[in-house]
Amino acid sequence: MGDRKQAGNTEFQAFAIGRYPRLMRTAFLLTGEQHAAEDLVQSTLEQVYVAWRRVAAADEPEAYVRRVMINAHARRYRRKLREFLAPKGDDRGLAYEIADTGDRIAQADDRHALLKALAELPPRQREAVVLRYWEDLTETQAAEAMGCSVGAVKSNTAKGIAKLRAIPGLADMVTHGGRK
Amino acid sequence: MSADRENHDMTQHDIALLLADAADEVEIGIAPTQALIRGGRRRKARRWAVAAAAALVVAGSTGALAVTGLSGGDGQQVAAPPSPSVVQDVGRPYRTTLGTGREPDGNYWWVYIDVWAAPRDAAEGAAQLAAMGEYGEAPIDVTEGSDLVGKISYFVLRSYGAAKSQGTVKIQGTAPASEALSGNDNESGAMPLDPDSNGPNRLVIGSVAKTAQAVTCRWKDGTTTKLDRVPARTDVSVDRPAIRTPEGSPNAWFVCLAPQGTEFASAEVTVP
Fold it and tell me: From which residue to which does the signal peptide run (chain A) (predicted)?
């Protein structure tokens, strides 16, 4: 039994190491803040550990993990942890300090504008946009991750994208094909 | 394709690029695997944490079985088999007595489990959460009914004393029904039988796979108590230590009590 548990731990560690970068990026887009992203990933992977045997046996472990992360994000939002609402100026994740070329400053500003705009979306719209356009999920996959209907995904995505497009800075960026 | 549609597609494509660009801003670092495992273990352990004392009002039809379990006298109590005809009702739990007994000083002890069926939607979840409150059962980490959707909740309660009106939640968990134990999995914990004492840890409550054939509780004095599995919905004296399968539970449960003067050491599962 001890050997089996050890093997499970080893498998879990390999899984966590492999998925960690992607999960951190997704969590960062969902939360808009470095520490909140770390917390969200930590919480997600802890829950994955608890259900590891089932996750490991699943056809699509990633789908399970996404579902856990979205649930955890939604739960935290409901608890009104307001740090999710807006990126903080002193957050190291927002890279204000990048200033070696004018272009990179502008690039950092663009990122900040997008993160800020994302953070201002209602959580379900934010989740839908991130899952569809960052995770590149189909509407069906996004619906599974969010635990809602495909129609709700369509609606939340459309509303989220519309709000992002209404942000003046972003509108300029996307009108010109995005910053390269 | 119209110009508008073309521009629309370009916009969404660019948003994907911008998201990827923004996502690169996060500092990835090294996956804290040891911290994750520790955290995961803590989460598992929380299911077994002694919950805050919560008075249980034994009332209504779900309380009837519980009262029966203690009222019949020494050694003759029989757990009534849950009715299989009962339609899944998320507004009240299935209650199963896991074990009872009477100490030489005359005090009764009684351990039972309430299993709540998985709500199918947020409305059912909200109704269930409210109903749990009426039973004095509050799931950990659940703030809204939607948190319960698709998940079974269980509460193991212990009552002790001359009176039999109250139980205290000792173990709680909320998890998808598919998260069942298997093989020789064993989650067990021990506590003093008398809630007012600090030991010894004589009362053992554990959860095992439904397929487990037997559990052997080992006591610190070297003696053992063996519990066999009894089929679900079978009449078995509730003061006879056994592995029982509560209605609605994805796992089997057992309770055993160490002899006077010793306490719990370990529990081993025998599989087919």
Answer: none
